[in-house]
Amino acid sequence: MRRDNAYSVLLVSSNEKMTSSLSVFLSREDYGPVVTSESVSAARRLVSQRDFDIVIINTPLKDEIGINFAIEIADSSSCSVMLLVKADMFDEVSYKMQDCGVFTLAKPINSTVLGYSMKMMCSTRERLLRMEQKQKTFEEKLEEIKIVNRAKIILVENLSMSEEEAHKFIEKSAMNERKSKVFIAKKIISEYNKP
């Protein structure tokens, strides 16, 4: 588990006893803040206001069962999602949730199983964060390539350079000014886009 800060948790449960026992379990140093909600509608508002590392949904809830909310959260965020369901529904629900990336546990749950499950949730969250960072890095690199290509087009159109000459011009300018190619490309773009 990461020690630099705790995992934020959204606990969605309309059962006060379950909320209380889960809150006590989650009060350890590895988790926090733990925010609670009694309904899906309130939980949706919370999720729209901030990011959570882990979302735990104890079914059923006041305004709906919570299964669709679990799928929605798993599809739209990089948080780990755990769904707690009655034992008689476990096989059917867990089969459906498996394809969505939602971890399902059958109730009642003992503290040992919950402890192991929370460690899995944290591991999953770390993996998702790494994937999110890789995607962000890829998107940044793609944007940099687009900017440099736009600058090359400007040089080709305005200074009658070949694409290779424009590329070398940007590279050489970057080395001479000790700046990045993107910095030089943005400078070229802004220079030629003056009104």
Q: Helicity, in percent?
A: 55-70%
CATH architecture of the largest domain: 3-Layer(aba) Sandwich
Strand arrangement across the biggest beta sheet: 2-1-3-4-5
CATH topology grouping of the largest domain:
Rossmann fold
The pLDDT mean sits at: 89
| Count of individual beta strands | 5
| Low-pLDDT runs | none
Number of domains: 2
Structural class: alpha/beta
The arrangement of helices and strands along the chain is EHEHEHEHEHHH
Distance between the termini: 54 Å
Question: What does this protein look like?
Answer:
Helix content is 59%, strand content 16%. With 195 residues, it is an alpha/beta fold. Helix 3 links the parallel strand 3 and strand 4. Helix 5 packs across helix 6, helix 5 packs across helix 7 and helix 6 crosses helix 7.
Question: How would you sum up this structure in a few lines?
Answer:
This protein has 195 residues and is of the alpha/beta class. It is built from seven helices and five strands, in the order βαβαβαβαβααα.
